[in-house]
Design brief:
438 residues; alpha/beta; 9 helices; 22 strands; 23% helix; 22% strand; globular; binds flavin-adenine dinucleotide
Length: 438
Amino acid sequence: MYEQSLKVAVIGAGMAGLLTARELKREGHRVIVFEKSISLGGTWVYDPRVETNALGLDPARQIVHSSMYRSLRVNLPRRLMGFLDYPFSLKEGGDPREFPGHEEVLRYLEDFARDFRLVELIRFGHEVVRVEQVNEVSHEWVVESRTRGSESEMEGEVFEAVAVCNGHHTEPRIAEFPGMDIWPGMQVHSHNYRTPEPFQNQIVVLIGNGPSAHDILREISSVAKEVHQALRASDVHFKKLENRNNIWQHSVIKCANEDGKVVFQDGSFVYADAIIHCTGFKYHFPFLRTNGIVSVDDNCVGPLYKHVFPPCLAPWLSFVGLPYRAAPTLIIELQSRWVAKVLAGKLALPSEEEMASSVEELYQHMKESGLPKHHTHQLQQNKFDYENWLVTQLRLPPLEEWREEMYFHALKKITSHDDDEYRDTWDVIGGCKDTTAC
Ligand code: FAD
């Protein structure tokens, strides 16, 4: 093994970019973080603006990065959201709740960046528009960026490695159904949802069943006339939710008509005013030029060894933060440590062939299990295997058992209609206020 200090570009100053910058700095690399906006924190910087194209279909639209809604409170307890060596603890004057509002996460990231002297590494207002390897032998990468205020001027700079940390909650994925173009009501993706007021007294169809779908459904049901949730699950049939005045569940949308009618696959229908697509996001790397070596196919970024390194460009190009349906903070922290140590020469990767066959094995396994390609980076039940694999690579002590218990406990609550108050009643459920139990 050898040890080396490289000049590394990090794209994005959200949670992934900040953690990656810290780890790279710790390992002695020279780091520059490119951040297109004027502040750090990425997703956690609430932006009241919405995009001109509410479904996010127009590639030329003015893009708003964050998908935060005004009322958002975190959906995992703060003990699971803190970094391993920098707990997300209560701060004077902060939001003391176990599930604080989004402002508290931003404050935490700002404190983290200040305490580890990361702010001075960030070039704010620099949007990366091109990342391309210009010399395969010396592993040189050009990173071209344009600066806010002088959009026509491009700056190019050469680096030895690039870590992509640009986030994946900005480019909407929408549900498609016959008639969606002629249906006359308002259609909006959750990316452009901020507050419930626009849905006052409306009949709303909400598509989706993830964490944002549940939050938004609860919130708009307090102002809307009726809310109809369209779900993919095969066992869902038309029903009114118990203990709710105005929420119904249906199967997926079959079609929508010019007269405002929305027909569901279970035969039920409703004349609605609005459809909200809470249907997730697409990975998007408009700046990346790899001659097809890395591509996004049906929302699978690949090929990537363990969701991080493209085998034939490793370790000079890496992606941090792609997995979802997991506690993002821990995954990001472990991945960023791995990247920094591999680049420093302190940890070795398998050969290119071995990494490529590991990726093939994953694809084959998914195929045999009947999993669609777009689930490639969804960890869910595999979350702990993946985390433990990274922990072993990094030679860290095993993760505490309470993490798994707490995560699955929270997951059940996030998408349940039975406990709207779980964030506030958490202290008395699952014994989790008692740290010896967790
Ligand atoms: P981001 O935070 O999106 O940061 C990416 C950064 O890259 C941004 O600052 C962006 O401006 C910058 N960037 C993008 N493109 C470029 C470019 N070309 N050039 C330069 N800079 C660029 N996680 C939890 O743990 N708990 C929660 O409760 C939770 N709730 C969530 C709720 C919502 C609505 C959403 C959308 C996500 C939520 N998450 C939650 C997940 C959250 O996204 C992650 O916790 C984490 O913040 C992701 O960080 P990131 O750095 O990968 O991406």
